[in-house]
Amino acid sequence: MVMRVDDLTTLVTELSDDLTPAATDTGHGIGALLADAEPIADDQMLLTVMAAAFRLGTICDYLLAAATSRAQAIGLPKRKQLRDGRDVLRQLPLAPSAVARLGRLADNLPALPHLAREIRDGDLSLEHADAVIRGLTHVASRMDADGYTTVKDAVATRLLAHARGETPTQVMAQAHELAHQLAPAHPPAIPPAENPMLNEAEITRTDEGRVRLAADLDQLSGEKLLTALDTLTKPVPAPDGGRDPRTHPQRLADGLIDILDTYLAHPDRPTTGGIVPHITLTVPLPILTGHDDRAADRCNDSVAATPIGDHIPRLGFTGAISTATASELCCGNPELTAILTADSVPLDLKRTQRLATPALRTALIARDHGCQFPGCGKPASWTDAHHIKEWRDGGQTTLDNLVLLCRYHHHTAIHTHGWHVMIGSDRHPWFQPPQGGDWIRCHQRRTLTHTTHAAT
After folding, report:
1. Considering just the CA atoms, what is the radius of gyration of the chain in Å?
2. Which of 47, 72, 197, 340 sits a CA distance of 20 to 30 A from 90?
3. What is the mean pLDDT of residues 393-407?
């Protein structure tokens, strides 16, 4: 029997109505529940409603996946100038993760009838079904094609059984165990641990706007990563000789960022459209200079009438950032090409001599050698040229207003914790803790003066 569109609409409406109390004057069905619902006092009734809502959601997921599978089969994406069924799903207000899961389910519905029946009947969530599909893909990647064909049904049955009572993460763990058990006794020349064809990486945005990385690398690639991070993740003593306050995961993150900074500062890296990749910052000029006189006017405007993005700093890939971070980015990052907009007119900041010229940076390296924060000394290639008196406050881009600082101490010690820097009478940087007290000489002193008088 073929279900018509009208039948499908009726089905969804009836399922929704089953979840609602009696109709009220405010409307019928699910709309009445949301608009004028009375709290459910009975525990069992509440649990029944929750179970019914889960089944309804799961059935809707199945309908989306089945419709996507059918759309691909009849060539709908091509007729709509789309690549595949996932592009069809992207026409709906779905999160990227939901598109990925529904797309995988659509691809596998014909080949996995038992899984299709479970989710169609509302007994298995989309996340659990996706774990079964990804688990099967993992097992297949560890076996030859003929061997996998002989065990595919048994593996699917095993993973489906686990999915009925375990979490998606546990289902994937079972898939990894099965892959090890079913791997051939005489593996091919390249074992899975050393096979770069199995490498995967994923970059996602969190709800807070942060960026999360995940990677599955072969052994040699992992060795390269660990080797590159080794010297960059060693603890850095505090100025008073105390322990590095960063945890090991924090030092790993800082080391990875140092690698990215060095890559972006390298002049011979690959280009895109003839342009060397660089960080792009767009920021209104009044914000950067600290004279944003339009802020009060904007507060009086209605939100709907204010064009989004007109008055906020933005990065090229990740979007809006705070004014504080934008100001810090404008403080001597050599890999940054910053663009200001004054009344929507772009202005290349490099023309304002905000950044240290090659000749000036050479002089800085000759004086500082590397990060000058007491106890650090990271190489100059890992450092920023920090304006002691900030550029936005009228600070000049000159040798006597610059100091080399690694990213960690530039961001954490100076911009976050409030350490003070000055150039002493000896023409070298001196540092003072946030709480005040004696000035501390820089890490790389090229003078024989060791008294605090040189800091005055």
Report:
1. 30
2. 197
3. 86
What residue type is assigned to position 25 of the chain? D
Q: Please return the burial class of 358, using the count of CB atoms within 10 Å of its CB with bins 0-12, 13-18 and 19+.
A: exposed
Instruction: Output 159 or 268, whichever has higher pLDDT.
Output: 159
Sequential DSSP letters for 58-97: HHHHHHHHHHHHHHHHTTHHHHTT-SSHHHHHTTSS--HH
DSSP letters, 370-437, are: B--STT---BGGGEEEEESS-GGGT---SGGGEEEEEHHIIIIIIIIT--EEEE-TTSSEEEE-TT--
Q: Which residue has the tokens 């199945």?
A: 62
Mean pLDDT, residues 283-292 taken together: 64
- In this prediction, residue 81 has a pLDDT band, given cuts at 50, 70 and 90, of confident
DSSP 453: G
pLDDT (tens digit, 9 = 90+) per residue, 256-286? 999 998 888 777 777 654 556 677 777 776 6
Share of residues in the chain with pLDDT > 90 (%): 33
Q: Cβ distance 103 to 92 under 8 Å?
A: no
The pLDDT score that the predictor gives to residue 209 is 87
CA geometry: angle 135, 100, 62, nearest 5 deg: 85
Under 8 Å between Cβ of 139 and 148 = yes
Record the pTM: 0.51
Largest CA distance in the chain: 93
For residue 21, the model assigns a pLDDT of 46
Structure tokens at 82: 């789309």
Give 314's strand partners: 282, 320
Length of the chain: 456
Phi–psi pair at 40, nearest 5 degrees:
-85, 125
Residues 433-454: b if buried by 16+ CB within 10 A, e if exposed = beeeeebbbbbbeeeeeeeeeb
Enter the tokens of residue 456: 């005055």
CA distance 261 to 335: 7
* Cα 405 from Cα 387, distance rounded (Å): 10
The pLDDT assigned to 37 comes to: 52
Which residues, 6 or more positions from 9, have their beta carbon under 8 angstroms from its beta carbon?
A: none
pLDDT band for position 332 (cuts 50, 70, 90): low
* Alpha-carbon span 362 to 321, nearest angstrom: 31
User: pLDDT band at residue 312, thresholds of 50, 70 and 90?
Assistant: confident
CA distance 105 to 183: 26
Instruction: Sheet containing 429-432: give its strands across.
Output: 420-423, 429-432, 440-441
Higher pLDDT, 271 or 325: 325
CA atoms within 13 A on the CB side of 93: 0
